[in-house]
Amino acid sequence: MVSTDHNDQPDSANPATDLATEKRDIQGVTGTLTSRSIRSFVIRNGRLTSAQQSALDNLLPKFGIPFSEATLDLASVFNRSAPTWVEIGFGNGDALLHMAKQHPEVNVIGIEVHAPGVGQALLGIHAEALSNLRIIQHDAMEVLQHMFAEQSLDRVLLFFPDPWHKKRHHKRRIVQDEFLQAVSSRLKSGGLLHCATDVADYAQWMLEHLDNAKQLRNESPSQDFVAQPEWRINTRFERRGQRLGHDVFDLLYRRT
Fold first, then answer.
1. Of the residues 162, 198, 201, 211, which is catalytic?
2. Which of 27, 46, 66, 232 has its C-alpha lying 20 to 30 A from 137's C-alpha?
């Protein structure tokens, strides 16, 4: 899973304790932990507002999908058959809510582990009366592996994942071969994977790994980056990065 909004979430200061911290905190959120020892996120204590807590208590049962090792029947979840987009690590849900609102013909699922972001997104779903959006609060790799059938998704979106700046932490970056294999297998033929980052080093890392993914083809005419697609809005975290002089890189790959 992704540690989203990386400008607010720096790399762990004590990597020796990361796994123990994750084990304790993930068990607190999900009640389970697989044997996968390297994760792309660390649960950090974030302050929940009373409104976010209320949303978790009252809205998550309505708009949330509990994690399960059983494959989802997407038509049953949304009471209709429609293209399905999945955003991994949606932060506070700005882009997620925008996509669901602008594309009512699409079923949208957001995956996030951090409770404040989940609570904030739930408030947005309720305020906008969005019937085409659901939330899964769990590790995205486990969700991809267990909950989505092969070739069931039309689009997977990964916006501004934690870059894990320090070289010794690069193994924690979510864009790795295992992740890309999982995404490729779940995308339909012709489906899209859209990644975005404002960290130049991570952009090159993504480009190299994506180019090595056999089932994915770069949609950029220059075989590198693309212009920002209309479905990705600028979030406040992105705007802050731009004020600091960060360039933004969008990568768009199609499942062959």
1. 162
2. 232
For 196, phi then psi, to 5°, come to -145, 145
Q: What's the sign of the alpha-carbon dihedral 206, 207, 211, 216?
A: positive
Please give the C-alpha separations between residue 137 and each of 1, 190, 224, in angstroms, as whole numbers. 10, 27, 32
Question: Which residues are paired to 159 by β-bridges?
Answer: 196
Q: Is 162 annotated as catalytic?
A: yes
**What topology does CATH give the domain 48-255?**
Rossmann fold (3.40.50)
Summarised one tens digit per residue, pLDDT across range 48-105 is: 999 999 999 999 999 999 999 999 999 999 999 999 999 999 999 999 999 999 999 9
Is residue 174 within 8 A of residue 40, CB to CB? The reply is yes
Q: Could you give the CA distance from residue 121 to residue 64 in angstroms, rounded to a whole number? A: 11
Residue 155, classed as helix, strand or coil, is strand
Question: Which residues have a Cβ under 8 Å from the Cβ of 136 and sit 6 or more positions away?
Answer: 64, 65, 67, 109, 110, 111, 112, 143, 147
How do the domains of the chain map onto residue ranges? 48-255
Residue 249: closest CA among 187, 207, 192: 207
Residue 217 to residues 129, 159, 209, 212, Cα–Cα distance (Å): 36, 19, 12, 10
Interval 22-32: pLDDT, tens:
433 333 343 33
Q: What count of residues does the chain have?
A: 256
Q: Which two tokens stand for residue 114?
A: 């951090």
Cβ distance 34 to 192 under 8 Å?
A: no
Query: Which residue type, as a one-letter code, is found at position 60?
Result: L
Q: What is the pLDDT of residues 99-147, one digit of tens each?
A: 999 999 999 999 999 999 999 999 999 999 999 999 999 999 999 999 9
Q: Which amino acid is at 92?
A: N
d(CA 72, CA 83): 14
